[in-house]
Each structure stands twice: as structure tokens, then as C-alpha cells.
# Entry
Amino acid sequence: MNPIQSNIDTNSEEYAANVEFMTEYVGKVRHIENQIRLGEEKYRERATTKGKLLPRERLAHLLDPGAPFLELNSFAGYMMQGDTDGTTAGGSLIMGIGFVKGRRVLVMVWNYAIKGGTINGATNRKHARLQELAFRMRLPTISLSESGGGNLAGGGGPPDPWGAYGFIAGGRSYCQQAELSAAGIPQICVAHGNATAGGAYHVALSDYIVLVREQTHLFLAGPPLLKAATGEDADHEELGGAEMHASLAGTGEYLAEDDADGIRVARDIVDQLPPPAIRQLERDKAPREPLYDKQELMGIVASDKRIPYDMKQVIARITDGSEFLEFKPDFGSDTVCGHCYIDGWRMGIITNNGPITPQGAIKSAQFLQLCDQSNTPMLFLHNTTGFLVGLEAEQGGQVKHGSKMIQAVANFRPPKLTIVVGNSYGAGNYAMCSHSLKPEFCFSWPTARTAVMGGAQAAGVMTIITEDRYRNMGQEVPDEVRKGLEEQSERIIGGMEVSSEAIYTSARMLDDGLIDPRDTRHVISFCLTTVKETPHRDTQPNSFGVLRL
# Structure
């Protein structure tokens, strides 16, 4: 394979403007993440008084020192459901993939330092995503649990007196816990604090339970509810304390002395699982660094989404040796397909330098079938306004050929990884394997824009519909209506600009998180290795999951 030649002028004003935008946006992302951490830090004095570690301190005690950790969905729920300043983003969960005793695991740390770790819609969606990843990659899960239960205040919006939707959504996670156990995917839980009602089942449905002396309080009804419901008096310890559950009820297997000891026990449990799956893997080739500096990824993509750029220049800064074997370069050239190696792993890439034409869709479908045949993983790099429209495109079979591409993506069997780099509009979002077509992982750059269509196009559609209605009545559009259409267009364009940008869509979990462009190659390699380990994890399914008899 030949390397891609760089044509980026790093001294140009355009490049400098792009770097400035990307740097500021990455800074904004880091600032929001830091605000969340500062919110946790405010709880330090109370945590210290109670002899507890803060949530991220618990995470640090759990993970292998120096090993990578990929945090997922850190923006879930940002500025939603009563989050007025961004400090409750993350859905009360710190979630990601890391290493414990050399084994790759999924970690879920309940962030009790923010609103008591109470559960809202973002919590449920994030928990469901963790369970989906556990199923697909057979990853053991570790939960460092401490939650105040459902957020009865309901967050933002009108109150729901029954909370039935959230109640049912939460219950689905318990069903999936049971299914994970039956599938032979270990679930380890350290119950660091309060676990009431549904929170108690989250703990009890785990395969291994670690209780913390004088901290764990596990019951279906706490002392106040018990008193109200039955008139019975009981304190927290006799009703649901760690010692009671370890010695009388038999709910937990291990009794720890404090937070750090509980996490030590969890690490020891992981050490009893099958050996690290990565031992079974061998890269396709020895990794080589790209020819060009990853820093240049900050200046390739235009901050103005209307300005075109060449996605091959992005490819040149993430592939081994900057090499790329392009497939059918002269056919449907706005759609770019080809083979490469990333960190020693074989990969196919599909990306866009414009709308997807009928020829581009045909080419992509063929390339996907070839890579499926050779078991070659696929990387999708989004940069498209969608499928090309127009008389020529429609008569050329755009709907038919676009459907072929979507079908090929949906049924592609090797691993699929997706990064939304730029525009991702309309059905092109589906065809390029967004979350809706079930890639193993999907991330976004700060320049990502996800929408049904561009704001100007949406506004134009609404204007044309109104003009056609008056024309069919044989009338001119009145001046006051015309003025109203102009105001409507401004609102539509402004609204779609806000709702399509990266932080907004990541908050709604349209991806697994925002990444710094300079981390792209590392994230791809980390995720692909995670997927490739799946058949080597060596745990065995059983019929009903692990029961406490």
C-alpha cells in the first residue's frame, strides 16, 4: 500500500481557524467534565467524616495503575431533567472500560456525591448501554454501588405522580442482570452504602456481592417506610446492615471493613476469573505510527460545516504508515472506501467527501460484502449531508441502491466502529452506521453535526410548502405571511443548529461519548481490541444465572 500524500497547509489562515475552533471546543468539553468533578469534590468533607472514598477515588482504587480507561457517555443527561448548570451530567454513573488484574472489564461507579446518586432517565439509559456492551463483548462488569434510589423529584418538567415509565425502565435492567448471569458474564458488586427497594435488587442480582461493615444498608423498605407500612420499629443495621446480610440473610458473600477493603476484595474476585483474553490475541502486523503528526487532526475539519475538506487527510493521520488501499477510487468518488491497518489491525474504512450518490451506495455495499467475506472490521467516518436527491439520482435508483447499502451495513458480521467527524444528516446517518445500525462503538468529534437535514434545507422546505399552498389557491403569498416565514426560517435554522451539535447529541446518548480528535487512533485500537477479545473470555453460560440458595 502507498501512503496518502499530505496536502494540508499548516501555515494557512483556514488551518489556524480550524485549530482554534477545535481547541476551544475540546476545552469546553474538558471544562464541563471538570465542573462535574468539582461537584463531587464538594462532598469530600462529608465523605471523609463517614470514612468513605469519593466516587472517582473508588474508581482509582479499582483500576490497575497506569492501565488505560475509556470513559463512556460522560455527557448523558447534560442540561436535561433539571440539570441547570451541567454538574449532574453523566446520569449519576461513572461508566467505562478499564483493566482490573490485567483483565478488561466494564466498570460502573455510582456517583453518590451528586444528588445522592439518585436515578433518572439518563441513569437508566446509561445502565442499559453498559449491559448491551456486556452482552455483545462478554465483558465482566463491576459495580461500585451507592445510590439514593429513584429521583422522586423527577428532575425537570412536569411531575409524574406514579413514575411508571422510569419504574418499568429500571426493572428492565434487573431482567438483563439475570440474563447476563445466565449468559455466563460475571457481575461483581461492592455495596458501599444505601441500597433500597429497586437498588437492593441491583445488588442482589449480581453474581458476587461484597458488603461493607457499617456502611452497607440493603433492604426493600427502610426504617421510615417500614414504620409507616407496618408500625414495626427497626434500625438500619438490624434491618439491612452488612453484618446481618453476611451472617443471617446470606445475601452477600464477602464482608469488607471499609471502602478500600471492599474494592480490594472485588479485585481479588476478578483475579479468580479466566486469564486475560488479550493473551490469546495476535495483531495482524507490527504497528507503525502514521507519517503525520496527530496534532494536525485539529486543523483539517472546517469549523464552518459548509466548507468541504478531504477525509483522506484524516485517514492519513490515523492509519499505520499513513497507508490506504483505496477501493474503486474513480467510481462514486465522493464515497471513499479502502483497506488499511490501524495499530497493527486490519481494517476497512468507509467515509464521505460529499453526499452519497447511487454509485457511492453501490460501491459501499460491494466493499462491505468483501470485508464481511474476509472478516475485516469496518470503520465508518461520517462526513455527509446524506443521500443525493434530485431527478437524476432518483431515476438512477437512489432509494434502491441506498437500501442495499443500509442492508449491507445492518448485516455486516465483523466488528463495526463509528466516528462522527463532521455532518451526519438524514438517511446517510443510518447508512454510515450510526447508533441506530448497532456498531459496537460510536464516538463523535467536536465538529460532529447530526440531524434529519441541515437547518437551511429544513427552513426552505417549510417555505416552499406554504408558497405551494397559496399558489394552488391562485393567490400570492401575503406580505405578513412572507414576514412570518422569514421569522420561522430563522427559528428553524437556529434551533437545528443547537440540536445537531456535538454536546447536545452526546447528552442524548446518540454516541458513546465525545473524543479529542488527537485520541482517535488510540480509541479505535482500544475498542477494536476489546471486541476481538470477545471469543476468548472463557466463561460459560448456564440455565438460570447464579442463585443464592
